[in-house]
Design brief:
The complex is a heterotrimer of chains A (about 300), B (about 375) and C (about 80). Chain A has helices at about 20-30, 45-50, 70-80, 95-100, 105-110, 160-170, 180-195, 210, 220-225, 255, 270-290, and strands spanning about 35-40, 60-65, 90-95, 115-120, 150, 150-155, 175-180, 200-205, 235, 240-245. Chain A is of the alpha/beta class. In chain A, helix 1 crosses helix 7 and helix 3 packs parallel to helix 5 (about 105-110). The longest helix of chain A has 18 residues, at about 270-290. In chain B, helix 1 packs parallel to helix 7. The longest helix of chain B has 30 residues, at about 210-240. Chain B is globular, with a radius of gyration of 21 Å. With about 80 residues, chain C is an alpha+beta fold. Chain C has a domain at about 30-80: Alpha-Beta Plaits (2-Layer Sandwich), CATH 3.30.70. In chain C, about 10% of the residues lie in helices and about 20% in strands. Classes of the chains: A alpha/beta (about 300), B alpha/beta (about 375), C alpha+beta (about 80). At the A-B interface, strand 1, strand 2, helix 3 and helix 5 of A face strand 2, helix 3, helix 5 and strand 7 of B. Strand 2 (about 60-65) of chain A pairs parallel with strand 7 (about 200) of chain B.
Amino acid sequence: MVDKSLELFDCGHRACGGCGPAMLARLMLKATGENVIVVASTGCMEVFSTPYPETAWKVPWIHSLFENAAAVASGIEASLKHNNRTEKVVCICGDGATFDIGMLCISGAFERGHDITYICYDNEAYMNTGIQRSGATPYDASTTTTPAGRMSTGNALPKKDLPQILNAHGASYVATASVAYPMDVMKKVEKAINTPGACYIQVHTPCSTGWGFDGAKTIEIGKQAIECGLWVNYEMENGELKKAKKILRTPVDDYLKAQKRFRHLFKPERNAEEIAKIQAIADANAAKYNIDIKLKE
Amino acid sequence: MEGSHAVAEAAKLCRPEVVSAYPITPQTHIVERLAEMVADGELDAEYLCVDSELSALSVCLGSSAAGSRVYSATSSQGLMLMAEVVFNVAGMRQPIIMSIANRALGAPLSIWNDQQDSLSLRDSGWFQLYGEDVQEMTDQHFIAYKAAERHDVLLPGFVCFDGFILSHTYEPVDIPTQEEIDAYLPPYVPYNKLDAKSPLSMGMYATPDYYMEFRYETDLAMQRAGNAISEVGKEFGEMFGRDYSMHTESYRMDDADVAFVALGSICGTVKDAIDEMRADGIKAGLVKIRTYRPFPAKEIAHALAGVPKVAVLEKNISLGTSMKGIVGLEVKDALTGTGIDVYSYVVGLGGRDIRKKDIRAIAALAEKGEGNMFYGLRTELL
Amino acid sequence: MALRIGAAAAPGRAPDNKTGSWRVFMPIVDMEKCTHCGTCTLACPETAVSDEDGEIRFDLDYCKGCGVCANECPAKAIKMILEEN
């Protein structure tokens, strides 16, 4: 049994106050314990946790490039397998590194079915480089490369459904989670590392700096995302949906209003058309994953 | 044995634990033979078919960092696609050895030989060895692993040989036994290793306060690589009778009036042309470069001392330079202050044939003081 | 201290960087209200909140004053106050 009182992510790292990914780093290592090798991509977490020589990682850790964590992890896994070693191999990569530039490597790794766990910390944009749009950026979010303006209501593209893509690769276990529910994160990480084959967990890690809210509210915002259906926590095993977190759903408005990146939808007045589109996304999620708690009349 | 298969034998004898490569002409026969060896139990390694060259070298990096000796091979477009990883591996100081079956770079697409691919990454921190024939390129793999893995080196290396010309030709080759190579090349002992028993963070980021010193250290390692290659090359000679203690090989250089400098298989043609020229009273010689990185400036200066004209045969081009050839620039630099004239001749790009009479014609051009040009253009196309 | 090649380092130097200096607000706790639920100790991104000997302690060398602990405490036992210098 892994000793969850062990703190394997050191203080002194340079994340913003209230950083969602920093919370995840701590939780992830509590779930893995010391017998792990972590593979990081270039991004916020890598940068705030390893300015030479101050590393916050008290476990073996390697960073190569932006796009290749899944391939580096594949190589580590092959070496460990060849030498009958027991360390678990866990990738921790941002959404930019995972959804966009890393698609080639992650697809190959999952196709080959290496015994790795790939955790994506999804803060829904390229945060480290200053909040640019990624394949994980939700519809109508304002980022520096999809800014809201007179001719635009923000990001016009949908959020890529990467969990389903990796599910289609035959991943043994695919889950979504949120730092708003830390015990759930740890449980899912523990499950993934103990499930043979390639496993994927996408963790919602709200970013106060990038989304525009007070760092104290990281967990609160994460809960709001789940409660309005724009983020669904679920688990799939061998292609089948096993569990999804059920909620008493609230309209998307409160979640959107709470973040600067969506505030253009309420100025100068409420943009009913666009908000309806976002509501439709939440409604579709609810239907697909059957998350609405049905109250008895 | 076909050149590619000799290389596969060499790779096998070095006991890599992980092999990962992506198919590309003309390297494919190497990785196909290795796959057969694994399938038949002749080679006990994890053989990973990957999605791209970028992944191939990244897989090798991961395995190497975890403590395994690894092997890969590529050419041309594949080398360019993994270029980002190439620089990364050198900075991570992982002693990965990769065969390069030299091939021209597109556009326009060409599957035929020239040396543009590996020479384009001369700044990357990988040492570079070039083989003249199948025997040499085979031997250079053993030397490469032994030099790379020394803790005073810890740099990756390219073992380069001309695609098709060497990879796909049959030549007699002496392949050492497994016992002999085990005696020559001991098991890999990593310096930085991913190990839960002794955690390390590898590949951290460096602010301006640290970055320069990391690069300086890597340059020092590259210089030490030169010594290492000589030392292990000498040991190889003592064990196997073929000496590689020199980074260059001089052919009929005594009293030469014109000296050729070249890399790889072209040297065979040059040697034959020199024999003909000498028979005709033309005092030509050759300095073959085996180790291109680190550049053996001292050895080259010594070998070319006193020769009035140097003709560098370039299977490459540095577009936009006045000298045109990549190697010539460095040869010229090594001869600074000597008054020796150095000329580059761009030949054989994209697999164009080079014949003895071309070599002779180039010698004549060098005598006349004409150089820094393409040789052998089909003027009717221009 | 000499560089380790490959930009590698053993763990232990991160705490050299005392992020407590970033702080504008600091947490204070009313132990009468605290139920020792463990929410604050688990939520802190800096591992700066501990529950020891019946007391919630904030490691002020590292606490960035983000306020997550105060925002999440179900008993509203933690408050963020402007830190007097």
